[in-house]
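Protein Entry — a single chain follows
Next Lines — sequence and tokenised fold
***
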Amino acid sequence: LFGIAPSWVICGKREVTDLIQVVHQVSEKDGVGRYKKRLGLGFCYSSLIFSEAVVQDPTLFTHLVCDGAIVALSEVFSRLQNDTSLFAPIFGGSNGLSYLLRFPMLYSMATSLLLTVFKSQSFFDQLLNSALSNVESFASVQIPVMIWQGEADILVPKEDFELLFNRLACRHKCAIITPH
């Protein structure tokens, strides 16, 4: 697909290491000074990367914020493969006001591409075998954590949010729940 060899798709296998290296490089750079407070901000998939990075390097951030934190990479992709309607928020949601929907040909191509990728067995096998899991990471995170959750979030249901919030091992944690 588009000349990308399946072996190039590593599904986050090195992103944690990359994040740790970048944060250390930026926070210790000469002329900038050392940052005393560092906020990690992870949205959906990146919440997996940020929480795992904090587990591997507990001093990486002083605080962590996760918005729409997913339970595990394998779990969310299993849902997406089994229920393609979960792509709707990406392409306009139920109200159909997406920018892409204004361009039917582009929308059709993007949807086709995503479905092809998510239906690819080799790609999906990598995702199913991914060890990235907020359920595991959150149990070890000790820094203060804030989780944002949308009541209408169809990709991260209320049960997943509650599971993750209850798994947090940190002493200081809070949740912000919004309607969307």
In short: The mean pLDDT is 78.
